[in-house]
Amino acid sequence: MGYKVAVVGATGNVGREMLTILAEREFPIDEIAAVASSRSHGTEVELGETGKMLKVQNIEHFDFAGWDMALFAAGSGPTKEYAPKAAAAGCVVIDNSSLYRMDPDVPLIVPEVNPDAIAGYKARNIIANPNCSTAQLVVALKPLHDAAKIKRVVVSTYQSVSGAGKSGMDELFEQSRAIFVGDPKTNEVFTKQIAFNVIPHIDVFLDDGSTKEEWKMVVETKKILDPKIKLTATCVRVPVFVGHSEAIHIEFENEISAKKAQEILREAPGIMLVDKREDGGYTTPVESAGDSATYVSRVREDPTVDNGLIIWCVSDNLRKGAALNAVQIAELLGRKHLQKG
């Protein structure tokens, strides 16, 4: 038997990707609903590449009673209004927004990292999906933390415009086109020109000078992996359409060599090690786009600290950073807690 699954925000980038991944991974579904705002009511979205078209239903009138799971990709506003209603109706919410991530009664899950924490969903009937940049980070850190215990992490991110949604991708395209043909450029999504530029600013600024995106990486890593880990981040938007990259400097309590780290990462779940130490022997966002793996390259020892390593990590942020992780949570939930006869 399969599950009754609703995808909320089904017309957006992440919602469509959720539908694609549910189909790709042959998630056991008896019935599926595509749900979105009233603006999209009556339009159609495809269930992956199955050829099956789903008519979008208006969330304002959707009844979650009788549905097993709802994968939310609708942003914090609609989630705040409708996720509690779904949860109260007995439908387990898997939420991709930031709304519930730091709620102590809501588990924040990356299945390769902290699968046992999913049992905590029963408190609110809600499970949170982490920030896209955090998701790939903790997948890369987990096996190394198990081996040598991480003390401190310094991470610099190179985040694609798809992290800002379709409008961010459109702005990069339009600005690039305008530069080539000599038309005027406008900034609407980003604070400065993103085409042929990098912007060290994602989300709002906080009182200490960091941005909320950087704060998210700190607190989410602590919640998912280990509250004792010290972490600092600099998050940068780059003119790449899909795929986030991270340069990660790690300091361990115990000794670990680059060779040993490579051996560990080669066998770790969810990770693809590509580290040939030659021209092209590493992964870039272009290669990661459309793939489910978290890629790790350029594993080397950091001579500036005791027990230090540096790694390069790349992942498709729309997949592992959002849609794939949500579907993996749904699979874990089904295996552990919502088994059907």
Question: How do the helices and strands follow one another from N- to C-terminus?
Answer: EHEEEEEHEEHEHHEEHEHEEH
Mean pLDDT across the residues is 96
Overall geometry comes to globular
Which residues sit in consecutive blocks of at least 5 with pLDDT less than 50? Answer: none
Number of helices: 8
Structural class comes to: alpha/beta
Biggest β-sheet description? 6 strands, parallel
Q: Using DSSP, what is the number of strands?
A: 14
Report strand order across the widest sheet: 5-2-1-6-7-8
Helix content: 25-40%
Question: CA-to-CA gap between the ends?
Answer: 6 Å
Q: Rounded to an integer, what's the Rg over CA atoms?
A: 20 Å
Strand content: 15-25%
Using brief descriptors, characterize the structure shown.
341 residues; six-stranded mixed beta sheet; six-stranded parallel beta sheet; 8 helices; alpha/beta; 30% helix
